[in-house]
Amino acid sequence: MAEGVVMAGDLLDCPLGRLPVAAIDFESAGAAPGETDQPVQVGVLRAESLFEGPRLFDSYLACSRSVRWCASRVHGITSAMLRGAPRWVDLWPQMRDLLSGAVVLGHNPSTEMRFLRVFPGHGFGPWLDTLALARRALPGLGDYALASVCGALGVVGELDALVPRRWHDALYDAAGSLLVLRALVRGLAMEEVPLGALGFALHEG
């Protein structure tokens, strides 16, 4: 094993500043009561240590039904934009490469965890919830939406330079989670703190 490489089983002991990270976000088709929601876009940023420049990946995803108007109004994705897009299950090779051996980041990542269950036994994680982390680190903020947390931490300009898009784009929102973690680790001088110390914000995959 090359010096400095962190194996998956050692992630909880890894100092945050040297942590391999994979931030992920999805946009969805929206669902009526009784329907199962489906992803229509995925964005991932992978860095072999927290402050390293990340690899970026994003894709629209084929959907078996029309994107609901209420969802399209939020993220701007229409059914026409998904023509020719790959099926989510066909992106397994890319997801395995991008997410394996890293802590997976999301801002309240319950949707991300659910959509990844299409790959049984994938083994990704642990997951770090930047929403839970921000609530602990920024008490009294009031609004902990990703845009509000990024604004409070002063990282929106860096986010726009890294992914020049807008909120509710999957890659932009995933990048926001990554920059939130970076800003909190730097601001609280936690570079040498092990991931396991953030147990209140960790989830199993």
Topology (SSEs and partners):
Elements: E1 21-28, E2 39-47, E3 55-60, H1 69-75, H2 92-99, E4 103-106, H3 110-116, E5 127-129, H4 130-137, H5 146-153, H6 156-162, H7 170-187, E6 202-203
Parallel strand pairs: 1-4, 4-5
Antiparallel strand pairs: 1-2, 2-3, 5-6
List keywords for this structure.
about 200 residues, 7 helices, alpha/beta, six-stranded mixed sheet
Walkthrough of the structure:
By secondary structure, this protein is an alpha/beta fold. The protein has a six-stranded mixed β-sheet. About 30% of the residues lie in helices and about 15% in strands. The two termini are about 25 Å apart. It is built from seven helices and six strands; from the N terminus they run βββααβαβααααβ. The relative contact order is 0.20. The radius of gyration is 17 Å and the shape is globular.
Give the strand order of the largest sheet, numbering strands 1, 2, ... along the chain. Answer: 3-2-1-4-5-6
Strand content: 15-25%
Radius of gyration: 17 Å
Measured distance between first and last alpha carbons: 25 Å
Provide the succession of SSEs. EEEHHEHEHHHHE
Q: Using the alpha-carbon principal axes, give the shape.
A: globular
Question: Which class of secondary structure composition applies to the elements?
Answer: alpha/beta
Summarize the structure.
The protein has 205 residues and is an alpha/beta fold. Helices cover 31% and strands 16% of the residues. Helix 4 runs parallel beside helix 7.
